[in-house]
Design a protein that fits this description.
This protein has 490 residues and is of the alpha+beta class. The protein has helices at 2-15, 24-28, 36-57, 145-212, 218-252, 268-283, 295-314, 346-355, 374-439, 445-479; strands spanning 18-22, 62-70, 87-97, 102-117, 120-137, 259-263, 320-333, 335-336, 341-343, 359-368. Helix 4 (145-212) packs antiparallel against helix 5, helix 6 (268-283) crosses helix 9 (374-439) and helix 9 runs antiparallel to helix 10 (445-479).
Amino acid sequence: MKPFLWLAFFALNSYAQETFKLTEKNLVSLSPETSPQWDSIEAAFLTSKAESQQLHDKFRPELFGEAQYAETRERPIIQFIPVWSPTKNAQVGVRQAFRGGVSVSAGVGTDQRSAMTPSGTFRDVTTTTARLDLQVDLWKDLLGRLSKAQSESASFNQERAELERDINRKAFAVSIRRTYWSLVANNEQIKVYAGLKNTAGEQLKDARERLRAGVTDGGEVARYEAQVASREGSVLYFRYQHEILVKQLKTLLPELQSKDIVLADYDIPGMIQTVLACTGVIASQPQVPLDFTRYDEVTQLLRKTQKEQGKLASSYDNVDLKFVGSVKSTGVGSKDNGNGVNQGSYGSSFDDMQDHNRTGYSAGLQLVIPLGKADTRQTQELLAQKRFDSQVGQNDALLVNTHQQLVKVIRLLTDVVRAQKENTDALERRLVVQNRKFREARLSVNDLILDQDALLNSNLTTISTQLEIINTIFDYLVVFTETPCEFNRI
């Protein structure tokens, strides 16, 4: 008995969920930051941001250093050439690349070693070198042409990623609102079928009474039984659709996963009027309203990026000519102590560098001439052009088509709703007459059910069309995210 009680206890607890009264406003006000879709939007932005930061990091200073210790017991190949052991090497410095095609590094390195030879002993002989290295691009990146193009391209990409993140965030909010109004439409469909199911139940009850009175036959009762079963099946199907929509909503907003969602009161006619008022604002714009969207800013950044990418592509097979120079000063610490031992130290090597002018320099040119890379360069240039032309063309077409088609589509859908309402009113009046005829035995049950089905389909079509109107304006607001109307301020 106890296991059963435990199961009953957990079953009751599983249903004891907090109720969440669902309205469009409180739904949008929930935090979306735990949503996987929200994380995906952020990940796309952070990817672009990281790429930009990595490029800028190339022009930041960095410290470098290394140290090495080596010891060996090998014999010299030639007696008077010593085998140095142990040896200690270390260096430390700082380097930086600049956007002007210049890179500089400065550092200090030491080399300390010991050896025993027939002519004497060398102990901790130390060489210290301070050096400054300079590299200047004289052709490919002269005055930072390519570095600047890379930097500008990365900056434009990051700006575009920020815009697209804002656009996608608003699209995410729209997807939540879509689901809400789909739930509302689903609830209206359930109401329609539930109402007709109740009507069919009353008619079935009346038919059974008349069958007992001998006024009708079993065929009429069976027809009503089939109608009740059909209505019940439809109600169950739309309740199944309700659960699918709730699951979709909880996926978008995981904050709702532990809550029992219940629709609060809503106003479909009022919302339709709000939507139509919004279409009036849109219709007042004869040209594509660029003030209503941020896609035009995205397009501008795409064009700027295309220009910089073209510079990079055209330089693919350019000659690479660099000036390389260095200045260094070296000091050696090694002093005979009178006992046949040459003793050195780090301090004596620094002293030698400071006390004597041991500065030297080197200068040279590095030249690389690419051969046979022209075809690849042309391909990269064409790729840069086509890729960005495609993105810009898609954005332009999206703006133009979305704006031009909205008013036409909304007008058609509004006319459909108006026609459906007239049709529904006429069918309701006809059904009143048909019910009277049926009660007077002047109409068959099949004809009556046909009229009921006609009214049902008219009501369902009206609900679907109203939802289509709302979804159409949502399609517009995904693109024209800044549209100044009440429906877009929720």
